[in-house]
Amino acid sequence: MEYKKFGSEITYNKQEQRFDGDVIGASQELTFSGKSVAELRANFESVVDRHLSRCTAKGTDPYQKYSGRLIVRFDRELHRAISLAARADGKSVNRWIEGVLADYIARRH
Question: How far apart are CA 68 and CA 91, in angstroms?
Fold first, then answer.
């Protein structure tokens, strides 16, 4: 689920017979739960809205900060193939990977 630029990671708790969720992208740890999908979504949105209100009142940024740097390791053959594809497109490896990932994210939404 996504709401106001926040994502979620959801698991099912068999013992409690409910869904448990963590908010992704918040400046602090936020959790929510629900016994149905509708309840889960409502609680997710409520937790996010309360977080945004608290941050607005305190004058703090509600979103997790990202540096823009990501260290990734690839198999050597994949690294070679990426390098060749980037050169063929006239881009650096970083810009080529950034473009491929941006296209993938855009297609998902």
Answer: 18
